[in-house]
Amino acid sequence: MQQYIDSALTSAFVERWQPDTNTFHKPWGEMTIMLHDVQHILGIGVEGSLPAEPADGEWKLAIAGLFGEPMSELRRKGIFISGCINVVEVMHLCHRSQAMETQSTAYYMAIVGSTLLEDKTSCGMRPHPILTVNADQDEIAWGAVTLAYLYRQMEMASRAGCKTIAGCLTLLQTWIYETSRRSKKLDILRSNVNT
Questions:
Q1: Taking a C-beta distance cutoff of 8 angstroms, is the pair 33, 25 a contact?
Q2: Coil vs helix vs strand at 75
């Protein structure tokens, strides 16, 4: 997904991010991505349950339970890399699994992890709530989870010394395009009213 992201554009906006207020400081005022923007741009729900982020040991046990393999075997296969989950290895395990529920959960996890909750690595994904939640996946407010994760990633990326950003950059870039398109229309309307 990173190949379709305009890194110069997103970097320019991240430089204007204020973590204290979760807003972009622009010459004309402050702006931010709202939940209705997430719902409009991504078409995902913003209402529902908000699962807690899993603890380190909890998500590893959930992966082991999902595939029915001991933790030592999963480590040997390289499923855990630097606090992340190796997406390629998850897909390999998924293809070898005969259980339909395991396959659907693993695919769902890979899709959510590599789009909405994208990591900075090219092959890993952060452990996320899908691993430990007991509710139906359709009842989760994925829009709110995605926005909260993006806010946190922009806060980290706005610090000095940070060179990359994670999160749903498709959402960020589309929001930037949409807000600039709307502001151009407003400028045209204002100039027509003033003449």
A1: no
A2: helix
Task: Pick the closest to residue 107 from 71, 149, 137 (CA basis).
Answer: 137
Instruction: State whether 80 and 21 are in the same domain.
Output: no
Q: Is the pTM of this model over 0.85?
A: no
Residues 126 and 181 grouped into a single domain: no
Expressed as residue numbers, the domain containing 66 is 56-140
CA proximity to 86, closest of 52, 63, 58, 56: 63
Task: Look at residue 51 and tell me if it is in a domain.
Answer: no
Count of the separate structural domains present in the chain: 2
pLDDT per position as a tens digit, 9-68: 888 888 889 988 989 988 778 889 999 999 999 998 888 877 766 666 777 777 788 778
pLDDT tens per residue across span 127-145: 665 555 444 566 778 889 8
Which residues 6+ apart lie within 8 Å of 117 measured at CB? 125, 126, 128, 145, 146, 149, 167, 168
Based on the fold, state whether residues 132 and 163 are members of the same structural domain: no
Q: Which of 61-75, 94-108, 180-194 is predicted with the least confidence, judged by mean pLDDT? A: 180-194
